[in-house]
Amino acid sequence: MSPRCLVVDLGGVLFRFDHAHRLRRLADVLARPADRVDALLWRSGFGADCDTGTYPDTAEIRDRVRDVTGFTGADDDLDAAWCSAFRPDRAVLDTLERHRGSRTLALLTNNGPLEQEVLLRLYPTMFDRFDHLLFSHRLGHRKPAPAAFGAAGKHLGARPGEILFIDDSAANTDAARAAGWTALRFRSAETLDRDLRSRLR
Asked: Residues 108-153: pLDDT tens digits?
């Protein structure tokens, strides 16, 4: 069955992702060591809770960060540092556009309300070609949980065999295949171009 939906990851595919860079930026903004920032905001499980919708809006997330870290600065400074891990890769977007044809193009990402609000504001042209933006905080599940793929497929109105999924994580592509999706492990825009050329003839 030829796929009628292309579903791609955000961090590591559509955007280059550098968590260490984000930690350095947040360390400067929060005036705390980077390892302490990581412990407070990610290793504590807070970041994952944001991704699954425990904190339903950006204001609540910012308030929680302030409570945990003692930050008293401007929201814009916090937003920019939090989202500094993400850098758009327009070559990937162009590759997707070149091969999608009439197929549905969707994003499936493990991210929360803050990333969704800020990244769409900072980089609107990276998202305006997508038919669906499936952020995990709205689905209530994170990849590679089977429920994340089930919820995404239901939202798309597509059968598993109709979906081609692109992600940089082997755990996520393995889980997608277990859900009946076709999956490609992303490595670069160049290899993606070759893979899509062979798959979408």
From this structure: 999 999 999 999 999 999 999 999 999 999 999 999 999 999 999 9
Are 46 and 73 in a shared domain? yes
Q: What are the tokens at 194? A: 């070759």
- pLDDT, residue 1, reads 62
Q: Are residues 135 and 179 in the same domain?
A: yes
Same domain, 131 and 104: yes
Q: What percent of the chain has pLDDT over 70?
A: 99
Indicate if 122 and 158 belong to the same structural domain. yes
Q: Which residue range(s) make up the domain with 105? A: 5-16+87-199
Strand 86-88 relative to strand 15-17, pairing: antiparallel
Q: How far is CA 126 from the centre of its chain?
A: 12
